[in-house]
What we know:
The structure is a single chain. By secondary structure, the protein is mainly beta. The chain has two helices and twelve strands. The strands form two sheets. Strands 1, 5, 6, 9, 10, 11 and 12 form a seven-stranded mixed beta sheet that branches. A five-stranded antiparallel beta sheet has the order 3-4-2-7-8, with no helix packed on it. 38% of the residues are buried. Residues 153-173 are annotated as: Disordered.
Amino acid sequence: MTRQRLRVHVEYYQYLLAPLDADIGDPDYTGNGLVWVNEESGAIVISTGLDTGDLDLEVQVVEAAPPLDTGGWDEVVETSAVLTGTSLFIGGPTDDDPQEIPLPAEEDQARSYRVRVHARGRDAGRKAGYIRAEAGDALLEYHRIVLWPASPAPEEPIKLTDDVGAQTRQSSS
């Protein structure tokens, strides 16, 4: 199991986990309000409340599905992604120095993963708009992403309670 705690730079209300130089595409969060996967490139795009700035993130890569924990989270969604290679990179859409997340795969191996995304503080992030840790701003938004090898399965919205997600989902109506 791999567990990393990161500070991620967010831009345009989003950050991504993706193979290096993957096409992000045109994210559509209207289904669940939190996460979208580009099925062609494997890019996983996460919606934030924060427009631009920093948030804390924990990423876990595990061997099998962990117990579900929704306590303390505003939003929890599971989805599937087919990823190729030994790592993903995480950062904002224009990040020149993304952080690397190792995956349990061979260099050119395509493998299906289940991706569980947790978020809290998106409403506070939306109100703040811009948070810069270097300037001493308090971080208001926190995310956890857990990935494990698994057969593809339908997207599963598990907990959907924040206003940012509700507004996003409502825009699809």
